[in-house]
Specification:
single chain; alpha/beta; Rossmann fold; Transcription Regulator spoIIAA; 4 domains; six-stranded parallel beta sheet; five-stranded mixed β-barrel; 14 helices; 19 strands; about 35% helix
Length: about 425
């Protein structure tokens, strides 16, 4: 039996696919890199943004046209968020929801028998410690919790992932040890909101980071996205844990808007001042920390004044990474009951913010010119060379280096999205 898996979306979803691959491999299934060689095709979907939804649907339709005799299994967030769309797009496909991935082997066997399997709904199964087939042998992803405590008015992902469920720290610690012993040089802690870890169990993200950084070996820990609201009561402890040399000096903390009225309409649970206070604390303790943030342009209640507030905040913040999304209604959300703003205005705002993003990123990266950085080499570049990460998680391209190793690199060129360097 041959199975091909294709993944859309975030690091958490990539980890889901790695678990599905691990379970299939353990049960004697051959994983192939080409859908043409497969008996069954798994599409692990993402549904967080409208453009991604379109990519997913187009891909499902394309595969059905190219390989009409192949059995198809749809997994990921789309299953819980928009089952009607799956029925229309792929009426003969099987489904399993994100909380049912431990049933992957059973589901694949069922669809190969011609059964139209549909496994949905949530459960309390723990994903930590399940077998994984890594997409990169040097990077190990650990899901520390699933779901969130948020009620953001624009977000449909929470309908698929459910309420917060934190996984036991001992299991996470054991998985970290196993991955380092297996030769991994980077551990990525991922969740819908890593800062929410332990809110319902009495544990915390900071204590988890401290636990993992006690593992012996030379490796780096990458902390995934943190909601400002979840950080507010533990910011000092999180900052202290980030000061460990094994933790990448980089935080991903979405603001979504620079205007308090829009943030309130979004049900974000924090203000601009709350956000700025967290960033200021991090920069005071770790001056070279890189900041990644997210902005939604064109939320239904965003007027020109609110958008200008966002521009001012980004100009002041000068983030190293800025992820910009143009607002689109998502199924079942409160915001989808509002009227969308004119798409021409949305496009103009997005372009203006993107130009600012590029300008700031280039300025920030140029400051690193002629500096010497300790870099972890994590992969080969698609256009040649090797890709590494600086201690602040910035992408650096070098000519040649051993994969999975740490090297000292002098930076000689800076672009807005990456650096170029030479081993010294």
């Amino acid at each position: 039996m041959n199975v091909y898996i294709e993944t859309f979306g975030c690091t958490f979803n990539q980890a889901d696919s790695q678990i599905m691959a691990g379970l299939l491999h353990e049960n004697g299934v051959k994983l192939v890199n080409n859908p043409q060689e497969a008996d069954a095709i798994i599409i692990n979907t993402c549904y967080v943004k409208h453009p991604t939804e379109q990519k997913v649907i187009n891909r499902i339709q394309s595969l059905q046209v190219k390989f009409p005799d192949k059995k198809l299994l749809i997994t990921g967030c789309m299953v819980e968020i928009d089952p009607d769309k799956i029925r229309k797009t792929a009426p003969n496909a099987g489904w399993i929801s994100p909380h049912q991935i431990t049933s992957t082997v059973q589901a694949v066997k069922s669809i190969l028998k011609g059964e139209n399997v549909k496994l949905t709904g949530s459960n309390n199964s723990i994903k930590t410690g399940l077998p994984k087939i890594r997409s990169n042998p040097f990077i190990h992803i650990i899901q520390i919790c699933e779901g969130c405590n948020g009620v953001c008015s624009y977000c449909c992902t929470r309908f698929a992932r459910g309420k917060l469920q934190s996984y036991p720290s001992e299991l996470i610690y054991s998985e970290a040890i196993e991955s380092i012993n297996d030769g991994c040089a980077e551990i990525q802690l991922t969740a819908q909101d890593t800062a929410a870890y332990g809110k319902e169990t009495g544990e915390s993200l900071s204590s988890l980071i401290n636990k993992i950084t006690n593992v012996e070996g030379d490796f780096r820990v990458r902390i995934g996205m943190m909601h400002p609201k979840s950080m507010m009561n533990d910011a000092d402890n999180i900052i202290n844990s980030f000061m460990n040399q094994k933790v990448y000096k980089s935080i991903h903390i979405p603001i979504q808007s620079g205007n308090d009225n829009v943030l309130a309409d979004m049900n974000r649970g924090h203000t601009v001042e709350d956000f700025k206070e967290i960033i200021t604390k991090f920069r005071q303790s770790i001056p070279d920390i890189s900041i990644a943030t997210d902005v939604i342009v064109g939320y239904p209640t965003e007027n020109n004044e609110a958008f200008n507030d966002t521009l001012k905040l980004i100009s002041e913040l000068k983030p190293d990474f800025l992820h910009i999304s143009k607002y689109h209604h998502r199924p079942g959300t409160l915001a989808s009951q509002l009227d969308e703003i004119e798409h021409k205005n949305m496009k103009e705002r997005s372009k203006k913010l993107n130009n600012l993003k590029i300008e700031i990123a280039l300025q920030n990266n140029k400051k690193m010119m002629n500096t010497i950085q300790k870099v972890l080499i994590t992969g080969k570049g698609s256009k040649g060379g090797y890709i590494g990460r600086t201690n602040t998680y910035k992408t650096i391209v070098i000519e040649d280096a051993p994969l999975g190793s740490f090297v000292n690199v002098k930076i000689f060129d800076a672009k807005s999205t990456y650096l170029k360097g030479k081993i010294i």
